[in-house]
Amino acid sequence: MSLETIEFTVAGDGRSAPLAGRAHCGVVGSGDLEVLLEPKTGESAVSVRIVTPVKGFDALWKRVVEHFVTESGVAGLSIEINDNNASPAIVALRLRQALAEARA
């Protein structure tokens, strides 16, 4: 199975608050994924790296992550996602779970 790596950056909006802690949520299993959140120093943008076996859904990944960043107000963050065929709803759920863990 070949994997595709998708990388992009989501600009901070100037209102977003940086995240203080790291978080790891989920597992790389069938229909699931793991999300790793790590704060970055000195940057307001959110950098994103996704490794997935599913090709051709770059625009959908970007929309899901941009919605998460806008909805949650995070900034200065690195998001790493290791996917194994998760649906967009599962992606959104794991991102929210990781954020809750990082803020706990």
Write a structural description.
This protein has 104 residues and is an alpha/beta fold. The chain has one domain (4-103): Ribosomal Protein S5, domain 2 (2-Layer Sandwich), CATH 3.30.230. Helices cover 30% and strands 37% of the residues. It is built from two helices and seven strands; from the N terminus they run E-E-E-E-E-H-E-E-H. The chain has helices spanning 58-72, 88-103, and strands spanning 4-10, 17-18, 23-26, 32-39, 46-52, 74-75, 77-84. Strands 1-5-7-4-3 form a five-stranded mixed sheet, with helices on one face. It has a two-stranded parallel sheet with strand order 2-6. A hairpin with a 5-residue loop joins strand 3 and strand 4. It is globular. 26% of the residues are buried. The model has no long low-confidence stretch (mean pLDDT 91).
Q: Pairing-aware structural class of the strands and helices?
A: alpha/beta
CATH level-two architecture? 2-Layer Sandwich
Into which percentage range does the β-strand content fall?
35-45%
What is the H-and-E element order?
EEEEEHEEH
Number of strands: 7
Roughly what is the average pLDDT, rounded to an integer? Answer: 91
How many whole angstroms does the radius of gyration measure? 13 Å
